[in-house]
Structure formats: C-alpha cells, structure tokens
Specification:
The chain is of the alpha+beta class. Helices cover about 55% and strands about 20% of the residues.
Length: about 270
C-alpha cells in the first residue's frame, strides 16, 4: 500500500485517507438530513460517545472503556429505534437519487394498477371520469387546454379530481408515464354518435375522438351506469373487467417503453 506518513510506528496509507474521507462524508450527509430536527442532537451525542470510546481505548482507560462499551454495543439498535422516521426519509432520498435509480428496477405495473383501481372505485361511486393515457407521442395541444398539474400519479389524486364537486372534474386528465400532466382538458369529439345502436354520451365521444387522432388509450367511466369503457385506435370496448383493463394498460406501458428504446436505437445507428 502507498504510505503517506507514519504516526509513531503506525503507517498512514492512501487507503486510510480514503476511508476517513468516506466516513466524514457519510457523517456530514447524515447530519444534513437530520439538521433542524430533535434527532440531530441525539445524533451528535452518539458521535461524541463513539469518539470518547476510541479515546478511552487509545489511552487504555479500562473502566471508562468498559462503561462506554456498554453503550456502543447497543448503539446500532438504539440508532434504529430513535431514528426510524429519519432513516425512512434517508432511504427515500437515496432511492430518488439519479445514480441509484439506474440499479433499481421500477415496477411497471404501478401505473396500470393505479389507473385500474381508481377507475373501478369511481365506477362503484358512479362518478364519471375520463382518463387519457399517452402511449408514445405527447399531445401538448390537448394538455394546454386544461389546468397544468405535472403531478405524480396516484389513486387518491384521481379520485379527488373526479369528485363531482371538484372544480377539475369536468373534462379529461392526461397521463404520461407516471405523471398526471393536466386536468380539465377539452378533447375533440368523435363524429360517431352511436355504436351498435347504443347512443354515445359526450364523455364517450370525447374519449373515442382523441383515440382517433392520437396514439392514446382512453379510459371512460360512465356516470349513469358505472360501466367502464376503453377507446383506442378509434374503437370502443365496453364493460371491461378489472383484469382486462389492467392487462390493456400494462401492454400499453410496455409497448411505449419498447417503442422508446427502439427509437433511441434507430437514432443511434443512424448517427453512426
């Protein structure tokens, strides 16, 4: 190992320097996360106890070392118990960090599950809803007709938007990947007024109309019957079961990802 200098008879190497820098960085980042909370004072106290323990061992203070050892032996358990909320927050921040996201495979079924669960809960309540899931090409012109949200998709958010007394319940929401881009959007109406002799309401005509003009999947919840329909490629499917809707959305999510990777590959090969 590359030796930098010696402290008495102990060599100080480059590995020791890197080790100290890493530990210092971790302690500093932990303090940044905990700063401003009650846990920060406890964290500082634990660091002081650890430093005293090292000094007592180095100075060969046997009684003090024994007393501090009793504390340091259980400090990991105490740390987990005392800092449970902060540790959860720290792990959440690490999961959101871009470099760690490369090694974490997100659940592709999250978006289909959220939309499916929200649609069927709205159907049970007989709250009308119109959700447009963008497969590949964005529909910026449609998004701009509504209220821009750019919020992370969740079931509770969808339920809140389509609550009858909500100011955003009229119109459609636009969902792109796991982002709810906008609510209260105006969609083009289909020229079809009935299918198989069954008249289409404005919500169904709007869901069908956008599917005729863009590569999207429209999920329509009927306010009158509580039935769920899906429109894509200008065709309407009525009375879908929960599993059928989830499967359609899962295929759409996978298909959009595969098309996106294919487009990137084609662009890369063209440049080469």
């Amino acid at each position: 190992m590359f030796e930098i200098f010696k402290i008495g008879f102990l060599p100080f190497t480059l590995v020791d320097l890197i080790d100290i820098l890493l530990v210092s960085f971790i302690i500093y980042k932990l303090y940044q996360v905990l700063r401003g909370t009650l846990a920060a004072n406890i964290f500082v106290g634990l660091i002081i106890i650890l430093l005293l323990s090292f000094l007592a061992q180095a100075a060969n203070f046997r009684t003090l070392s024994w007393m501090l050892k009793l504390v340091t032996d259980i400090w990991v358990i105490a740390f987990i118990v005392l800092f449970q909320p902060e540790l959860r927050r720290l792990l959440t921040l690490l999961g959101r960090y871009p470099y760690f996201k490369k090694f974490v495979h997100s659940d592709e079924n999250t978006v289909p599950n959220i939309i499916t669960d929200a649609a069927f809960e709205l159907a049970q309540l007989q709250h009308g809803a119109l959700m447009v899931f963008v497969k590949e090409v964005g529909i910026k012109g449609i998004v701009e007709t509504g209220e821009i949200l750019n919020a992370r998709l969740s079931k509770n958010l969808l339920l809140s938007i389509f609550f009858p007394r909500s100011p955003l319940h009229d119109g459609a929401v636009i969902i792109n990947n796991n982002v709810l881009e906008a609510a209260r959007c105006t969609l083009p109406l289909s020229s079809q007024t009935s299918i198989d002799g069954i008249p289409l309401g404005m919500r169904h005509r709007a869901g069908l109309g956008i599917s005729e003009q863009a590569d999207v999947l429209s999920i329509i919840v009927s306010e009158e019957t509580g039935g769920i329909s899906v429109a894509q490629n200008g065709k309407l499917q009525r009375g879908l079961s929960k599993d059928a809707l989830r499967n359609l959305l899962t295929e759409s999510v996978k298909g959009s990802k595969e098309r996106g990777l294919k487009n990137i590959f084609e662009l890369f090969t063209r440049q080469k």
